[in-house]
Amino acid sequence: MPGTFIPSNYLPIIIICIFATIIGLSPLLIGSLLRPRRSYRQKLLPYESGNEPIGEPRYKFSVKFYIVAMLFVVFDVEAVFLYPWAVAYDKLGIFGFVEMMMFIFILLIGYIYAWEKGALDWE
Amino acid sequence: MSHLRSMILISPELLLVLTALSLLLLDFLVRRKGTLAVAGAAGIFISAYVNYRLIKVGMTGGTIQGMFAFDGYANFFKLIFYTTLLLTILLSVKYLAIEKISAGEYYSLLIFSTVGMMIMAAATDLLMLYLGLELMALSTYILAGIVRGDRRSNEAALKYFFLGAFSSAFLLYGITLVYGLTGSTNLREIASALHSLKLAESPITMLSLIFFITAFGFKIALAPFHMWAPDVYEGAPTPVTAFMSAGPKAAGFAVMGRVLFDVFGGLQMQWSIILEPLAILTIAVGSIIALSQTNIKRMLAYSSIAHAGYALIGIVIGTPEGFVSTMNYLMIYMIMNMGAFGVVIMLKREGFSGENLEDYAGLAKRHPVASALMLVFMFSLTGIPPTAGFIGKFYIFMEAVYAGHIYLVIIAALFSAVSAFFYLRVVMYMYMKEPAGDISLSTSKTAGIALAFAVIMVLVIGVFPSLLLNFARNSFFG
Amino acid sequence: MKYALIPLLPLIAFMINILFGRRYIKDKAHWVSVPAVIGSFILAVSAFMDVKAGNVINIDIYNWIASGSFKVAIGFLIDPLTAVMLIVVTSISSLIFIYSIGYMHGDGGYYRFYAYLSLFVFSMLILVMANNFLLLYFGWEAVGLCSYFLIGFWFHKKSAADAGKKAFIVNRFGDFGFGLGVILIFLTFGSLEYTHVFGHASVIAGKTINFFGYDVGTITLICLLLFCGAVGKSAQLPLHVWLPDAMEGPTPVSALIHAATMVTAGVFMVARCNPLFDLSPVAMNTVAVVGGVTAIFAATIALVQNDIKRVIAYSTISQLGYMFLALGVGAYSAGIFHLYTHAYFKALLFLASGSVIHALHHAGHHDEQNMQKMGGLKKHMPTTYIVFILATLSITGIPLFSGFFSKDEILYRAFLGGGLGKFLWFLAALAALMTAFYSWRLIYLTFHGKFRGSDEHEHHIHESPKVITIPLWLLAFGAVFAGYVGIPPIFYEHGDRIGEFLAPVLGHPLGHGTHAEEIFVIAVSILVALAGWFIAYTMYLKKTELPQKLEARFQPLHKLLFNKYYIDELYSKTLVQPMLRASDKIFLGFFDGRIIEGVVNGVPSFIASFSRGLRRIQTGVFSSYALVMAIGALCIIAAMVFWK
């Protein structure tokens, strides 16, 4: 289409995506092409340190795991934000500081809330 | 200094967030849960007052790198959201006690959702718009399922969540396509790029327009994207239903109006052609299915679908005056709908849903005031003068007639007549039937205030319609 | 704009009474309503003075809705016509409100009575003060609604509830036409304001509308439709049947609504629309003929009725016929003049008969409205007797009493009217003879001779209290002297002051007669009045056996008249019963809920089944919902592709 906007700035990203896909897929592809294929029941069973597996491999996890996982993700993201902020601190100045404090403050309230609600108690 | 200006312009939203966060913590400190409602209301009032002062001192314009606008358009919708929020909180106090819902979470989620809507109405950038939409939507998903012991409530939340995610995908596709075409997510830049690059006729533009309509159509429950609404409205706790059928719907219209008029203004012909059958379908589906409902919440859910269809007519017309009549309609619908739900909420008590039509039999004998209120709201929803509902429909229809959409008006008026059956059926149950047993109402002072406000507004707008209409007009043009 | 208070005061009284009446005000309701209506009266007088000084007030108080050329405004027009109506309505309302304090004393629904009556006065004032057709229509429907409430005021009495319903339903027929007329006016003129419509009337004059294959003049159609409403509201043939039954309501209601004010709304409306009617000879002739025929038709029925209120009710229908006759021959001011004098003497007749009924009721008499069971009340109720006589002298058109002036004006104008004029005059003169007869018959049966009830009852009959008799005296004053504003020029050159006053609105009647003609008409009308009196005197005072003999002799005729030409029976057989049967099937089922409970059969069943069908799509499975969404979006895309 004539005149259409072409996001040329994003070209490296596309290249990265392509390379990542190639790098990720190629060992699997090469492996599947090269490896010998002789399958029998014992070999296809899930590996459980040599024991016979008992019951379904999928079973219900306690919801507590999810809560912990979610809290982890939240603070993980916080850390992800803190790194670039810390690196660019000089350029962001006082405004950047205030913004980050607000962000941490909101997370802090979330943390207190989760704590008080008993999300961190395992029992 | 532009940072400070940004902070000032979004201070109403920031204050609301602060209120919501404090409510979360206050929940642990305060024993009497009524206090939370008062504290929440106080925070909302402060935020609304700050917003009002900002308007008064003449603050206006864009901020945050042009992603956020503080203009009359946004402020009109913010008034709808503030009112919805306050009325919902006032109506909820007793309900929370009956259903044993944790008050702090409930109120703060309501407020977060409202902040989302305010961001939606003010957003001038597609990403900001998406952010607001998700904040609103995620909060309402949780609200829909907040009665954890109730299977229907859980089901409602889950359905709403999955389908909401589905519709978000449409929105993101639309945004992606537009960005791919024009290289911007800013509404004004997109519009000028579409214009200067002569992309209006491009099929990709068309595709993105359809994706936007699908996504926004989901939020305002347009047929055929409405399927979630009856199930979710019925399953969600009643105050949340009231909130959802007023606030997020208006927010959906706010973004729809802004995107269609600002971005796709050159495609007005096309979106009118897409939306016209949708409006008719929506009105028809809402009105006809509502006829066979015996659950009043479900009836009001379908009614809310039908009303979205009427409000959409103002957009179908495609003129600014048409959209003014839609804004007018949304405000009116919000008030009368909150009122009707308010009465439904009062019928709820422990172990008794009060959601069936039979529960209203003979209500007038036992509770004349509540019945009279319901009567006014039902009349208004039907569109009988001198209530506000009549005014809303009248202006929409008049604008449509002037724009030459005579057949649309005739069809809409016919379905409006059909709708009288199911609204007045409630009135008939209340006034012409003998009460089956003793009906006691869960009244509270706060609910009384909310209902009194709603009924007064319905009548005042009905008698002095120009006040609201001129306000809407000035908001849109000024 | 202080004159906005004229209708507002009664409205406020209504609100107070209806909101606080049951709990707090109870039997003090008149303390709210009476001052309100008297306040309206005082303001009405001041408005009248204003108009007399040459001011015409036409002002939109409040613009309710404005959208393009369509406008709904609450606006008032106070011109000479309205001023006269204001005086009539407020003065009579004031007197009747005071009268009711005594008459309704001790009734369980006392506050309700005053609430409805105030609401009525409000609606009536809106009707006469409106400056556009929509507000007129609002007032028109509102007075009908009040009339329905008040006729059925004693709703526990089945006959009263039925009469209310009958009045409401019969009026529906007329109002339907009226509503269509208003819509047609809007479609034709693009506006509903009097000034605009009447100003552009002549522009539309030649236009026609194709109506079932016939070309009908637009103006004629509008006028006939409007007149439909007038026929219903003013109880003219063939929609007169509701008015006699309306006598089931309390007597003050009969006096106010069904004699002096509401029933004259039709006359007022036609007079108000005179610029339209003037352009349509067809409509004018229709009005005149309907009026003339109704005048004599109702008079014949009144000859033989025994219920005191029904006699007066038929007399009202007959007098309304006179008014329409006057309008139809173009003598609008004569019609309004008669409306004005009639209001006083007819209200007086009703209130005086109410006084009689009140007295008999308190004496324990059971058949309190049957004249055959009365007699000799003269000595027990002297005041009532005297005012009754004064009202009768007035209605029968005895010179120097007000009825004489207005009725004579109508007869004279009919006589001068071309075409059907002489014939209509003959009908009207004959009706005047009958009027004189039945009016005096009523007096003789009620007040003269011997009491025909038990002695026990007679012993207990007393004159009514002051609160009843004082309004009677005041009305009697009006009944005697109201006519002096319209003395025929033949007696006094500038005598026709009301005609001159109304001329700016209603114009001057056409045609000038000679002195000889005028004197002839006056002589005839005096003659028939005296003749009627004489016949009644002979039959009911001198030779009291004569009525029975005549009745036996002309039995079929008597039966026909006594049964009001069997019109009720005719309507019942041909219209009411088939409709009842049909509505039993449809609506009764709807309202007793049998059908509703079985989902939705109250609505046409195809919609119901459609509705249930659509509901089936709503499965509750969210993956199918998502599918519907996706299909919907795809359909739109496909449609847009193909549309290109």
Question: Can you walk through the features of this model?
Answer:
- The complex is a heterotrimer of chains A (123), B (478) and C (644).
- With 123 residues, chain A is mainly α.
- Among the domains of chain A are: 11-37; 63-116, Up-down Bundle (Methane Monooxygenase Hydroxylase, Chain G, domain 1).
- Chain A is built from four helices and no strands.
- In chain A, α3 (63-87) packs antiparallel against α4.
- The relative contact order of chain A is 0.06.
- The model of chain A has no long low-confidence stretch (mean pLDDT 83).
- In chain B, α3 (33-56) runs antiparallel to α4 (72-99), α4 (72-99) runs antiparallel to α11 and α7 runs antiparallel to α9.
- The mean pLDDT of chain B is 89.
- By secondary structure, chain B is mostly helical.
- Chain B has a two-stranded antiparallel ribbon.
- Chain C has helices at 5-25, 30-52, 80-103, 110-129, 133-151, 158-189, 194-199, 201-204, 218-233, 242-245, 251-260, 265-272, 274-277, 281-302, 308-328, 332-362, 382-395, 402-416, 421-447, 455-459, 466-481, 497-506, 515-542, 546-553, 555-562, 567-591, 594-597, 605-617, 622-643; strands spanning 57-67, 70-78, 208-211, 214-217.
- Chain C contains 29 helices and four strands.
- The radius of gyration of chain C is 27 Å and the shape is globular.
- The termini of chain C are far apart.
- In chain C, α11 (251-260) packs antiparallel against α16, α15 (308-328) packs across α18 and α17 packs antiparallel against α19 (421-447).
- The model of chain C is unreliable at 590-603 (pLDDT under 50).
- The chains are: A mainly alpha (123), B mainly alpha (478), C mainly alpha (644).
- Chains in contact: A-B, B-C.
Distance, first to last CA of chain B: 26 Å
Mean pLDDT score of chain B = 89
What strand line-up does the widest sheet of chain C have?
1-2
- Principal-axis shape of chain C equals globular
The helix tally of chain C amounts to 29
Determine the structural class of chain B based on helices, strands and strand pairing: mainly alpha
Could you give the count of β-strands of chain B?
2
Quote the average pLDDT of chain C: 83
Poorly predicted sequence stretches spanning 5 or more consecutive residues of chain C: 590-603
- Gross morphology of chain B is globular
